[in-house]
Each structure stands twice: as C-alpha cells, then as structure tokens.
Amino acid sequence: MLEVRGVTKIYGGLRAVDGASLDVAEGSIAALIGPNGAGKTTLFAAMTGFALPDQGSVRFRGEDITGLAPHVVCGRGMVRTFQVTQPFARLSVRENIMVGAYLHTAGRAEAAASADAIARRVGMAELLERTASGLTVAARKRLELARALATRPKLLLLDEVMAGLNPSEVDALLPVIRGIRDSGVTVFLIEHVMQVVMSLAERVHVLSYGRIIAQGTPREVAGDPGVVEAYLGRGAAQRMQDMRHA
User: Which residue, 32, 179, 185, 208, is the most exposed by fewest CB within 10 angstroms?
Assistant: First the structure.
C-alpha cells in the first residue's frame, strides 16, 4: 500500500532523514520507532506533503505522491495526526470532527451524522457537545483520531498518539486502534511506548540518525543488537549478552 524509497530530507547541514526505505502492507498495523531525534516525525512529514523530500519517492496505492500538498495527499486517502494536538478550541467535539467530514460532503446534516458515528467509534459519544478547550489530554488524543477518521482515510499515520497518557488510558486506547484497523483502515504509527508497539504492531521499522537500521516483527526488532545499541549506546548489546551468560 505504501512504498517509501530512498527518502532524504536535509535541513541546512543536517540529514534529518537519510535514504529511508520501507513498505507498509494494506490491512496491517505497522510501527516506526527510534530514539528521540531519529527523524521519525520528519519522515512522516515527507510522506504526507508537510515536507518536500530532497531525494527519494513515496508511492501510495501504486501512485507516486512525492511532493504533493498535504490536502491532496489527504484526498488520496493518506492522513496523519500530530503529536501536539491542536483542535479548534472554541468549537465543540462534534464541530471539530465535522471539519474533517467536509472533505467528502458539503451538507451540514451529513457531516454531523458522520461526526456522531465516528465519535461513537472512538469512545467520545458523551462528549460531542463539549467544547474542545475543556477536554483532558486523553480526550484530545481521541479527538485527533476522530478528526482524521472523518476524512475517510485508507492509511492512517499516528504520531505518538499515546504520548502523555497514563497506563490505564493507554490500555483503553489500544482496542480503539485495533478497531480502526479491523474496519479496513491500515495504521502506521510512531510510538515510544514499547507496550503499544509489542501489542499492536505486526511489523516494526527502526529509524536511527535518519536511517532505517532494522525491520521485522516486534520480537525480531527487540532482539536486534543494532536496535539495542541505538537506544542504550555503543556496546550495550554485548553487555546484555554477557549478563545473560554470566
């Protein structure tokens, strides 16, 4: 469904993303992980039109979408959320979700009906009349999900949707994301919470200093010496192996 080939993004003298290549299969949940500053959000931006790649290509459902504007990419069916949520603070939850629904309908009644249905999917039905400015962090995360779903995506990119949530809030959101995939929407997420990655992802891509250093199942990636060193420092993999055999 998604094919990223040799994508590079340079800011001044910094290669924020350096020749990254990966695939995301239709109907799957995939994860992009890596240390802070690895280039994960920049790669998402390059894939969705928020940053123009200096090199490489992005293909979505067989079409080259490299460099297309974000609203065009959204119209094609690939939508992203943001780590820092920015809802329309003075609008209600329903009205915020309706903004996304207007991508496919000009009718207010139809957009409102779509918003209500999506709110039920993400567990916000009781908050539809609440003003966005009064929402908790967990509710704002769900609203970010709902606004993206209102655009009817085929591929949903989630940028640290669990950031700032406590363990019980994380546990409550896991089945929501599985439900999104089960409804036919492919999910590709950036995540630091390893519990989420191990629980949700079928395939994991690891980014370090802008480069993909490992790809595989969560178990395969967790045991990769290069991944261990990317997170814990040079020599960490050998030290861990020595400890196991001590």
Answer: 179
Helix (H, G, I), strand (E, B) or coil at 145: helix
- Partnered with residue 5 across adjacent β-strands are 57
Burial (CB count <10 Å: 0-12, 13-18, 19+), residue 80: buried
Per-residue pLDDT, averaged over 44-60, amounts to 97
Mean pLDDT of the chain: 92
What does the domain layout of the chain look like in residue ranges?
A: 2-77+153-245, 87-152
Angle at 80 (CA atoms; ends 10, 124), nearest 5 degrees: 150
Distance CA 38, CA 66 (A): 21
What pLDDT, on a 0 to 100 scale, did the predictor assign at position 237?
A: 47
Please compute Rg for the chain using Cα positions.
Answer: 19
49 CB neighbour count, 10 Å cutoff: 21
Task: Give me the pLDDT at residue 244, please.
Answer: 44
In whole angstroms, give the CA distance from residue 84 to residue 15. 23
Q: How far apart are CA 205 and CA 136, in angstroms?
A: 31
Give the predicted TM-score (pTM) of the model: 0.90
What is the number of alpha carbons within 13 Å of residue 68 lying toward its C-beta? Answer: 20
- Return the higher-pLDDT residue of 238 and 124: 124
State which fold the 2-77+153-245 domain adopts: Rossmann fold (3.40.50)
Burial 150-188 (b: 16+ CB within 10 A, else e): bbbbbbbbbbbbbeebeeebbeebeebbeebbeeebbbb
